[in-house]
Amino acid sequence: MRERGIDSYLNGVRKLDALMGYIKFNQRTAEIDASDLKHKELNDLMRYCALKGARKIVLKNVCGQRYIGTRLYFPNDIKLEIEIYGTPGNDLGAFLNGHKIIVHGNAQDGIGNTMNDGEIIVEGRGGDVVAMAMRGGRIFIKESVGYRAAIHMKEYKDKVPVLVIGKTSQDFLGEYMAGGIVIILGIGLKKEKHYAHYIGTGMHGGVIYLRGKVEDYQLGKEVGVVEMDDDDWKILEKHVGDFAKYFGYELDDLLSGKFMKLIPVSKRPYGKIYAY
Questions:
Q1: 231-235, long-range: CB < 8 A, 24+ apart
Q2: 268 pLDDT band (50/70/90 cuts)?
Q3: pTM across the whole model
Q4: Taking a C-beta distance cutoff of 8 angstroms, is the pair 202, 223 a contact?
Q5: Extended strands (E) in 88-161
Q6: DSSP H helical ranges for 27-132
Q7: Is the Cβ–Cβ distance between 36 and 84 less than 8 Å?
Q8: pLDDT tens digits, residue range 139-187?
Q9: Per CATH, which fold does 90-274 belong to?
Q10: How far apart are CA 268 and CA 254, in angstroms?
Q11: Going by C-beta distance under 8 Å and a sequence separation of 6 or more, which residues neighbour residue 252?
């Protein structure tokens, strides 16, 4: 959408002059006070700021606004860094296409839904269905996530999505996972045992690296445990190394302890349901 189109749209929602009072520009940084903005107004103001030349956008007083980071595709390949103070609502970074989002706190459900590229860094917890249908980019969650993280995560052409979780997840981690990399670090777990059940149910692609321990009964019947090799450790060093850098951990500490590698044992676990 052209800059003029944004001005026209904002005038139709609320007087543009009034909305401009929520923005502070400092060279190529824009700060937006989200405390009294609906999610559509906030997202449109972010797009407006980018089209006005901002390359870093700081959102203050965020409280449940959804879809932050969507509708930020630009034909001239503008890339933004977005800092969020507060708690963003569902579908943070949905369809994200190359921008970087940093959340100074927790985030709700659907982080990185169908994300294509870029990074999302959450300094707290994540909700349910984190990385749902994600097909590129990386998501780093410092603490734990809810149910069905990485559901239907997939690879697309040369894109390999990555999800790194600092603590643990609830049930159905990697459900119907078709590609990508999930790393669960189990930081601070008592007795190093994860409590999720049905891990990898329906999984038919990708890999899950799990630091700590799970019992066989916690796994879906579609996944198996295999030995780590040198390539696996290189993958961990890269992505866990960035996790350590973002959140202030020592890489050697995070790579200590035993890792389990989970991969699918079937390419079409439900094929018989749809075909004879």
A1: 232/207, 232/259, 232/261, 235/181, 235/209
A2: low
A3: 0.91
A4: no
A5: 97-104, 117-122, 138-141
A6: 39-51
A7: no
A8: 999 999 999 999 999 998 899 999 999 999 999 999 999 999 999 999 9
A9: Pectate Lyase C-like (2.160.20)
A10: 34
A11: none
Q: Which of 71-75, 87-91, 198-202, 214-218 has the least mean pLDDT?
A: 71-75
Cβ-Cβ contacts under 8 Å for 24 (sequence gap 6 or more)? 30, 31, 32
For residue 46, report the phi and psi dihedrals to the nearest 5 degrees.
Answer: -60, -45
| Cβ proximity of 46 and 82 under 8 Å | yes
Alpha-carbon distance of 32 to 35, in angstroms, equals: 9
Whether 166 contacts 142, CB under 8 Å: yes
Other CB atoms within a 10 A radius of the CB of residue 2 amount to 8
183-229 residue pLDDT tens: 999 999 877 789 899 999 999 999 999 999 999 999 999 999 999 99
pLDDT in tens, 114-138: 999 999 999 999 999 999 999 999 9
Contacts of 146 (CB under 8 A, 6+ apart): 109, 126, 127, 128, 129, 130, 169, 170
Q: Answer for the pair 203, 221: CB distance below 8 angstroms, yes or no.
A: no
Per DSSP, 154 falls in state -
Residues facing 138 on adjacent strands:
119, 162
Q: Are strands 29-33 and 23-26 parallel, antiparallel or unpaired?
A: antiparallel
